[in-house]
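Deliverable D5.2: sample structural annotation.
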Amino acid sequence: MAFGQISILGVGLLGGSIGLAMRKIQPDCRIIGYGHRQETLDRAMQMGAIDQGLTNVAAAVAGSNLVILCTPVGTFENLLKEIASALAEGCIVTDVGSTKRSVVELAEKILPPNVHFVGSHPMAGSEKRGVEFAQADLFRNAICILTPTARTDSEALKEVGTFWLSLGMGICRLTAENHDHILADVSHLPHLLAAALVAIQPAESSLLRGKGFLDATRIAAGDAVLWRDILMDNSKNLQHSISRLQQELQKIVSMLQNGDSEGIRQWLADAAARREQLGAEPL
């Protein structure tokens, strides 16, 4: 399906990148952006990421075939309530949120039955924030996770999958619950760890930071509000991930205390082998 008009709610890194990508693959599509700051919307228009920027969210979704929520997940409930009565019949709503269970539940509760919601999580981004860092190829060769439910319209699911494929992404499907469980380990915990590694550094260590430390902590520079919402929304799964990590670290503490050099070597070798199997990219 070619979308005649799409609305991007939140024109930052991800929203701006969607707009730039759509400009390339479907130049005739009208792209409406929504945000709180007119300055940001004006910048997005200057970059060509959107055709029009509005600070009224109901007006921003009027007449659109596809609406994409690109704000922090903590804002989704209010946004869904504000747009519910303004959406055109048959409109498809999706999102880019890094948590899915609460998002899907809210959408299915709030949106009217003549509107179709499909949960999406494009696994692409950067520690950078702001539309000025948007890139048309940001999504290329990355994975987008779709989280359909028993209530998801099959045609809407197909259209959303085709949309992300057109941006260069691969597609996989998970339940919202499985998504949040897995992402706690592979995304949310790593962000927490990067922030913790930065937090424990004394001031003098800044003179000795090397590439390994900078690589390991790059994501700690991410948007604090966005990541606060993610961590809080996936709190139970994240607590479980933290507990498992603590158990793993305790193994190392015990081996260090016991002078078990062979145990440490084997532990590191096993981790290296598993990392090698992961490869450098998800696709």
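Annotation notes: The first helix runs from residue 13 to 25. The domain at 5-174 is CATH 3.40.50.720 (Rossmann fold).
The annotation will be released with the project's public dataset once the embargo ends.
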